[in-house]
């Protein structure tokens, strides 16, 4: 049985003190919610402080990105060696990284490989742009991204995939539950071809893109969708706690 997962991507928001205050406000309530994996992904500067706050809780910590090299002359970058003692998860291939910073499928593949080599669990983001969706190319784009990102990587249960249609991220225009579930089912089929059906059935696939407390039930009511990668709503205590609570209510598993 796939344990549902809700991950909050804080993006480039919160100072260290603001991040600490946000965690403090939601920590006790999130910690009490059972049968679901809860992950928060603050900016790099807050990882050390937040890791200390989460030590005795059931909440996991994730980073928002990383370089694929272990060390070297890469000014401003963060390596898997720097993250592995702080985090369990790392978001990779987010559309904002692909679009604003020119990350290619090849770079994403190197990052996924480096994360797994260093015992970090990648949350691999894939998804099509609006023009690709409107021209009927969703499957083509998603298959290319998944296949390229996992090229040369052995079957693993430590991977999480997040289907995030680019046109839904930060726009307030979420995909429908039916549409998201269909694409996620398609992704699971790709994994079965790449690896095998058993691994594909066990691997968690999330939806992301304008997820809120008002629409989370629509998504997680579908058996194909194992949770969500939440953006802006994860910065609002009541919203994020409600998203986790509703997901646990519908999909919660006894560990």
Any overview of this molecule?
- By secondary structure, the chain is of the alpha/beta class.
- It has a single domain, classed as Alpha-Beta Barrel (TIM Barrel).
- The protein is 43% helix and 15% strand.
- The chain has eleven helices and eight strands.
- Strands 1-2-3-4-5-6-7-8 form an eight-stranded parallel barrel, surrounded by six helices.
- The protein is globular and about 45 Å long.
- It starts with a strand and ends with a helix.
- The relative contact order is 0.16.
Task: Map the helices and strands.
Elements: E1 5-9, H1 16-32, E2 37-41, H2 47-53, E3 59-63, H3 80-83, E4 89-92, H4 95-101, H5 105-117, E5 121-126, H6 130-134, H7 138-149, E6 160-163, H8 177-194, H9 197-202, E7 204-208, H10 216-220, E8 227-230, H11 237-251
Parallel strand pairs: 1-2, 1-8, 2-3, 3-4, 4-5, 5-6, 6-7, 7-8
């Amino acid at each position: 049985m796939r344990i549902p997962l809700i991950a909050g991507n804080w993006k480039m928001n919160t100072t260290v003190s603001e991040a600490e205050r946000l965690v403090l406000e939601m920590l006790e309530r999130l910690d009490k919610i059972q049968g679901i994996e809860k992950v928060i992904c603050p900016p790099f500067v807050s990882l050390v402080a937040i890791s200390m706050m989460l030590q005795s809780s059931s909440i996991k910590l994730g980073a928002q990105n990383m370089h694929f090299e272990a060390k070297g002359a890469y000014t401003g970058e963060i390596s898997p060696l720097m993250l592995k003692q702080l985090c369990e998860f790392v978001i990779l291939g987010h559309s904002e990284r692909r679009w604003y910073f020119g990350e290619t499928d090849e770079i994403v593949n190197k990052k996924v490989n480096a994360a797994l080599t260093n015992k970090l669990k990648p949350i691999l983001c894939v998804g099509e742009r609006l023009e690709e969706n409107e021209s009927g190319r969703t499957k083509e784009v998603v298959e290319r991204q998944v296949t390229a990102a996992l090229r040369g990587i052995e079957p693993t249960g430590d991977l999480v995939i997040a289907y995030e249609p680019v046109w839904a991220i930060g726009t307030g225009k979420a995909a429908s539950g039916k549409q998201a579930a269909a694409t996620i089912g398609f992704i699971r089929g790709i994994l079965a071809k790449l690896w095998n059906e058993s691994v594909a059935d066990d691997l968690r696939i999330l939806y992301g893109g304008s997820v809120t407390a008002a629409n989370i039930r629509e998504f997680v009511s579908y058996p194909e969708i194992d949770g969500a990668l939440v953006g802006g709503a994860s910065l609002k205590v009541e919203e994020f706690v409600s998203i986790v609570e509703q997901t646990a209510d519908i999909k919660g598993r006894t560990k």
